[in-house]
Write a structure and sequence with these properties.
eight-stranded mixed barrel; alpha/beta; binds magnesium ion; five-stranded parallel beta sheet; Beta-Lactamase; binds ligand C2E; 48% helix; 737 residues; Alpha-Beta Plaits
Length: 737
């Protein structure tokens, strides 16, 4: 501990006494009692010569906060008659100042020095000891005061630190509380905004908490949503208000018991009010459980609707292929126990034409009308399904005899072929049916459908409006067709096609007017294949469009190289009109080959005019606008409607070969040829008789007024390589007869 300075002011007019004062003070300090471990102070003596000077020094010390502990004043400086005011003035400046008046020994003690010690010279031991004691006491008191102050300061500092720490803690606690409040708010909001009802029960099955959707779901009054509400009270309320499970003592009770025993459960619970609630129970680690309740009535209905949609046709409401298979599986299980079953595949004839000409809404209405008639024809145990487009299937289980299926097929074809009145349109269609039996033709759904389909294909190729039973031979035929299809797809890229040309001859001059290009397929193993064997297949698989393009380009290119500018006729398929690239193909073929458009003749059949009539006519007009000639081929084999001849100004009518070949035997053929020839004449069209094989036929068609002939009498179709020679040496174009 640092030693304190003991500041003493000595005031005497004679400075030589200063030493004596120092000794006096040192003696007094020595004689003073010691306190604690406080080290003895050092003396710091300041001297002055008068009371006034002493007052000035004391006043300065007070102002500088460096007070004196004691002041020794020589009595000589005090006024004799009344020293009290001077002593009082000194004491007033510092009430704690120890004041000692030093006087000579002879001088009597003066009461007027009351406030001060009186020390007589020579100094008395007791008086010096008194001064020392006073000095020590004051010094000790000051030291104690200093210590207390330091302790107080330390305490104060510690207190401030504790206080700051407390404040910090308090702040954290407040923050935590706010966070908890916020979380609580969020939790409550989340709880009440859940779609599901949520409730939590303790192990005594008393409510801990539940959310608003739970209360709303069962119409619980507020008092039943309070913490502590027994589950039994909630269940009773639900029973009273008609929200109890449809099946008493069912899964709900079992699952509550399970949850109490710590088992999770999830199940759908139908209620007496018609709703279905999805409930899930989850046990809590503390005992009790939490449960969610969700009203799934709507989603169950939606699921059922979706399930129905997935298994039914949207337009007719009939089972679709998926559902048909399920039904077939059921029926096949009975087939394995000895029953028989028939699968009928049905396809509408001419449906596409109705759809194309009258539009899809009428097509849809027709399918619905067909559905009604189909249902009217079958037994309740039979299934009618729509497989897509105009394809239907009928399942006839529990068959006693195979003829039953045939009778049904008859009935179906008869019923479906009766006219329909759709929105003011009279529509007539037909139906073709293929039948396969289980177990004879197959014992699984795939095979039966495939075989019935094959029989249907056969019914259609046999002329439609009829039905066929499946025969194993059909399968082999289909395989052959598949192989042909594969070869056909390859043929175009492998350059296996070729054009033959058949002469068109003027009836009067017997000169060649031009040639019809006729497609041939030089198959690598099967040799030359005629168009009747592959054009229908090419049409079916869509290959006719690129193939037809090739024909147009090839025919134009070859004709452009002929030595005489005669016409070249090219056959077009209805599919080429549907593809909408036809005009472009013709324009580009003419452009690239340089063939004059007037030399190109395009042959179409009536079936072209059967489809989307407006677009077809527009295409025909565009083609004719190019300068190309348009011929109506095979006239007389289709509807032979005169309205077709009116709908477009054809340049030529080609009378079908079937009329020419029977000219001799049938008089009506003659009449028809004559009628068409005169019609052609009056409309300014060329009339060509196809298939003229004999001189007689030539004479007859000439007599009936035909202007052009085509047939083996003049020429068979010839390869392109022979044509230049034929044209340069016309005499070789001799009749064969
Ligand atoms: P089409 O256009 O009526 O052609 C006439 C058919 O009658 C040709 O048969 C021809 O060889 C045959 N023919 C001509 N004169 C006689 C005759 O005096 N007696 C007999 N018995 N037949 C005769 P082909 O070449 O077999 O063609 C058959 C059909 O294939 C054609 O009938 C045509 O509709 C179609 N076709 C041919 N080439 C093409 C083509 O490039 N594109 C399209 N889309 N169809 C084609
Ligand atoms: Mg033709
Ligand atoms: Mg023809």
């Amino acid at each position: 501990m640092a030693r304190q300075a003991y500041r003493v002011l000595v005031a005497d007019e004679d400075a030589s006494y200063l030493k004596a004062y120092r000794r006096l003070l040192a003696r007094a300090i020595r004689m003073s009692p010691t306190y604690d471990d406080e080290p003895a102070p050092v003396l710091d003596i300041v001297s002055c010569r008068s009371v006034e000077e002493a007052l000035g020094v004391l006043s300065d010390a007070r102002d500088a906060a460096a007070p004196f502990q004691a002041a020794l004043i020589s009595a000589r400086l005090l006024p004799r008659n009344d020293p009290t005011p001077a002593v009082k003035a000194l004491a007033a400046l510092d009430p704690h100042l120890i004041l000692a008046v030093i006087t000579d020994a002879e001088a009597p003690p003066d009461r007027r020095y009351d406030r001060a010690f009186l020390l007589r010279r020579p100094f008395d031991r007791a008086e010096v000891e008194g001064l020392g004691t006073a000095l020590a006491a004051k010094w000790h008191a000051e030291a104690a005061q200093r210590r207390t102050r330091a302790e107080l300061n330390a305490l104060n500092k510690a207190f401030r630190m504790v206080n700051a720490e407390l404040q910090r803690h308090l702040k954290l606690l407040r923050q935590r509380e706010e966070e908890l409040d916020h979380q609580n708010m969020l939790f409550t909001a989340a709880l009440n905004n859940m779609r599901q009802g949520l409730c939590m029960f303790d192990q005594e099955a008393r409510l801990i908490v539940c959310n608003a959707p739970y209360a709303a779901m069962y119409g619980l009054p507020e008092e039943l949503t309070q913490e502590g509400t027994p589950l039994s009270a909630i269940i009773e309320h639900r029973a009273r208000s008609g929200h109890s499970p449809r099946e008493p003592n069912g899964p709900y009770e079992a699952s509550v018991a399970g949850a109490r025993a710590g088992k999770a459960a999830s199940y759908r619970l139908p209620l007496v009010d018609g709703r279905t609630i999805q409930i899930s129970h989850q046990p809590l680690p503390s005992g009790g459980w939490v449960a969610t309740h969700e009203d799934v009535t709507e989603s169950i209905a939606a699921e059922a609707r979706i399930a129905h949609m997935a298994r039914h046709d949207a337009l007719t409401g009939l089972p679709n292929r998926t559902h048909l298979r399920e039904k077939m599986e059921d029926a096949l299980a009975r087939v394995r126990r000895g029953e028989s079953m028939a699968t009928l595949c049905l396809d509408l004839d001419h449906f596409k034409a109705v759809n194309d000409t009258l539009g899809h809404p009428v097509g849809d209405a027709l399918l619905c009308a067909v559905t009604e008639r189909l249902i009217g024809c079958v037994r309740e145990t039979d299934t009618v399904a729509r497989l897509g487009g105009d394809e239907f299937a009928i399942l006839q289980p529990g068959l006693d005899r195979p003829e039953q299926a045939g009778r049904l097929a008859h009935r179906l074809i008869d019923t479906l072929s009766k006219p329909y009145d759709l929105d003011g349109h009279q529509v007539v269609i037909g139906a073709s049916i293929g039948i396969a039996f289980a177990p004879t033709d197959g014992v699984n759904a795939d095979t039966l459908l495939k075989n019935a389909d094959m029989a249907l294909y056969r019914a259609k190729t046999d002329g439609r409006g009829t039905f066929r039973y499946f025969e194993p031979e059909m399968d082999a035929r289909l395989q052959r067709r598949r192989a042909l299809e594969l070869d056909l797809r390859k043929a175009l890229t492998q350059d296996e096609f070729e054009l033959f040309y058949q002469a068109l001859v003027d009836v009067q001059t017997e000169e060649v007017n031009g040639f019809e290009a006729l497609l041939r397929w030089r198959h690598p193993t099967r040799g030359m294949i005629p168009p009747s064997d592959f054009v229908p297949l090419a049409e079916e698989i869509g290959l006719i469009v690129p193939l037809g393009e090739w024909v147009v380009r090839q025919a134009c290119a070859e004709a452009a190289r002929w030595p005489r500018p005669v016409k070249v006729a090219v056959n077009l398929s209805p599919a080429q009109f549907r593809s909408r690239t036809l005009v472009h193909t013709v324009v580009s073929a003419l452009d690239t080959t340089g063939l004059a458009p007037q030399r190109l003749e395009l042959e179409i059949t009536e079936s072209v005019l059967l489809q989307d009539n407006e677009a077809t006519l527009a295409t025909l007009h565009q083609l004719r606008g190019l300068g190309v000639r348009i011929a109506m081929d095979d006239f007389g084999t289709g509807y032979s409607s005169l309205s077709y001849l009116r709908s477009f100004p054809f340049d030529k009518i080609k009378i079908d070969r079937s009329f020419v070949s029977e000219l001799a035997e049938k008089s009506d053929c003659m009449a028809i040829v004559r009628a068409v020839a005169s019609l052609g004449a009056s409309l300014g069209m060329v009339t060509t008789a196809e298939g003229v094989e004999t001189v007689d036929q030539l004479r007859q068609v000439r007599e009936q007024g035909c202007t052009e002939v085509q047939g083996y009498l003049f020429s068979q179709p010839r390869p392109a390589s022979e044509l230049a020679d034929l044209l340069q040496h016309p005499r070789r174009m001799q009749r064969v007869a």
